[in-house]
């Protein structure tokens, strides 16, 4: 999958946007180092770093082209409760507005439920109307907005049944 990942992340890096989810960034690591990092993210060792365990998934087609990434956090710390939520996701720039984000979030919600989470928090920047629609299309209810520096974060909750 290295070639497919490099193609995916190179497209993101060619834009001036920040890569979402942050855990998908390569940060000058080799592909093997990235895979090891993602495996470590799923472990309890993340608590030692002040983080929570999480699981990274990629949305791909039958040819293994990567359309997006989604990071599922197994629980919330104070920062995630305010700004990040249980789920962070992003679609590569060339594949947006095709329903992939909604599909990816729909596929992720049962995984979140399997983690024992009955109500998932998902956040997005206030100016990201596409993400807000994706969240609402999956049952998200806006609780509030919080200010973080120059950004306004919208906080949505989805009941998992």
TrEMBL record:
Keyword Transferase part of the UniProt annotation: yes
Record-annotated membrane-spanning stretches: none
Pfam families: Acetyltransf_3 (PF13302)
Keywords, in A-Z order: Transferase
Limits of the N-acetyltransferase domain: 18-161
Domain of life: Bacteria
A GO molecular function held by the record: acyltransferase activity, transferring groups other than amino-acyl groups
Protein name in UniProt: GNAT family acetyltransferase
Taxon lineage: Bacteria, Bacillati, Bacillota, Clostridia, Eubacteriales
